[in-house]
Structure of Enoyl-CoA delta isomerase 1, mitochondrial:
Amino acid sequence: MALVAGRKTFAAGKTLLLRAGVWLGAEAAARGGNGARRFVSQRVLVESDVTAGIATIKFKNPPVNSLSLEFLTEFIICLEKLENDKTYRGLILTSDCPGIFSAGLDLREMCGKNLAHYAEYWRAIQETWLKLYLSNMVLVAAINGASPAGGCLMALSSDYRVLADNPRYRIGLNETLLGIVAPFWFKDVLVNTIGHRAAEHALQLGLLFQPTEALQVGMVDQVVPEDQVQSTALSVMTEWLAIPDHARQLTKSMMRKATADNLIKQREADIQNFVSFVSRDSIQKSLQVYLEKLKQKKH
Ligand SMILES: CC/C=C\C/C=C\CCCC/C=C/C(=O)SCCNC(=O)CCNC(=O)[C@H](O)C(C)(C)COP(=O)(O)OP(=O)(O)OC[C@H]1O[C@@H](n2cnc3c(N)ncnc32)[C@H](O)[C@@H]1OP(=O)(O)O
């Protein structure tokens, strides 16, 4: 097992400091006789079935799988490893935290930090999305918990979404409820999924949909009993993997390239927009009030 702290090179020649200790000794991980492998990093658990060519990433950043910079760093590394290893043709995204798929962006990364931190954080968010959205693998989201905002974006970036039938597991882009604005590429992905009118309605009101509503609006493809989420994701995956890779990948790229290029061509401007927006006093105040409300909810 090798614990490393190094640098990860991202697009545009920028680097993201790998702060976390990440286990890169994946290949040395437990390898069962049945072709099952298990990679371990602190916040991202990767299980894989080599024979089937399917990997499962389980988010493991308790309590709510918020997309902290450390989580994103580990996640991007795991995604890259899987993408570059031609063994894997399919990837299931799910959560190891009971009842929560992902609470979205980590609000603590967006509050009370300096401008360089906001820029670094936003670059990591962009990178995560581009890697997910343009993955050559089939991505199936097995959504086993609440999935607001950035959590919803991760699910929307998959090729197919299976949601557990539990009214507490709401999904949607709720940014306006926090007094912030979903960036244009979040909006584009939502429009591509549920259409312009439904997206406009959902985005302006910051709607979080219960499973039956999410199915109705087309935000998810299937709603199943909670104990069938993983098995359903697996059988969907098998169906998708029956399609020849080259044909499916070219089709996926044809459908998604324009949306991704829209961000790629203005990545730096998008970072600057985020930094100047999030560092405004009024936005800092909104985020702090929202975080405080979340904390007080318990008491
Ligand atoms: C012009 C425009 C230009 C540029 C763009 C500008 C702006 C940027 C937009 C960025 C887009 C943003 C996307 C996002 O993802 S923002 C995050 C949105 N997320 C949420 O609203 C979810 C908030 N959380 C919840 O609703 C609940 O926590 C949840 C997930 C339903 C779970 O509920 P529960 O199990 O009851 O757990 P608690 O609420 O008690 O939470 C436990 C613990 O976690 C803390 N926490 C929750 N969510 C977050 C989070 N997103 N970030 C950080 N911390 C979070 C919560 O405060 C509790 O902490 P404690 O210390 O009290 O234990």
Observations:
- The radius of gyration is 18 Å.
- The first strand starts at residue 3 and ends at 4.
